[in-house]
Amino acid sequence: MVAKITVGTSAYCCGMTATATRPAGSGAGDLSEVARSEAALRTFLHGLPGVDEVGAQARAAMLGTRSIKTSSKAWAIDQAIGMIDLTTLEGADTPGKVRALSTKALRPDSEDPSCPPVAAVCVYPAMVPVAAPILDGTGVHLASVATAFPSGQAPLPVKLEDTRAAVAAGADEIDMVINRGAFLSGRYREVFDEIAAVKETAGPAHLKVILETGELATYDNVRRASWLAMLAGADFIKTSTGKVAPAATLPVTLVMLEAVRDFRVATGRQVGVKPAGGIRTSKDAIKYLVLVNETAGEDWLHPDFFRLGASSLLNDLLMQRTKLKTGRYEGPDYFTLD
Q: What's the pTM value of the predicted model, to 2 decimals?
């Protein structure tokens, strides 16, 4: 499926393909020695090009001002709905809430069967057995946070058991959080080994590695953490837990998109990106789609390689979708609250 989106006075094409085309790369083996020691890993990560902070912020701000023409807005809204990881991660979560959320994930607009389902439902490990029977065989993924979410402060055996239990209960995606204390202390090999161990324990489940960029302090650290996670086997890199401010921002996501783009050139392996936290409106979501296309390219405009972690975003997208179809807004309470 290819849709032409007009942005401002220019146009670009957004192609949606199930399998991304991999450019000729030098092969993953060329980086196999990077993690052979703490010193080698440190040398590699600190040898990455520095991020132009002002430039990153300016480019993200510029892309954030671009407007989508009405003729393409419907496509963009459906695309964004199909990229959502519909999330509930509260201490007050109940089986009833998770069942309702899972049902909504399959049929976001109960009155309109043409509305696409979301990409995944994301819950705590204890709620995976509740969501699994509803989502099984539907194509909507079941993600679970693990590894002592959101702090990441637990012994490795506890993190691995957390992961193992979630996968055994039916999760086919694991969202793990790195130990930011270890990373910021320069213990890169420790972080690498934990990610690699979780990846092995997760087995066939896809691994999303949460960097918690709001605690990393600099764009250079975001770039280093992105490469570290990918080298250790991440299938996705994710900005935030949603529990720390700031969460997802356009400049941070820009840095991460540049990292996955460059990683694919170097290794031939394509890794996804997931901004999460603070993305609440259709306008916000469309800004991220523009950012993806302009930074990493159209190969990432697919749920296999780009997700939006959100809870309240879906209802705003549904309101905008209804407005485009009927010419009128429904009230905010027309759709079920998440």
A: 0.88
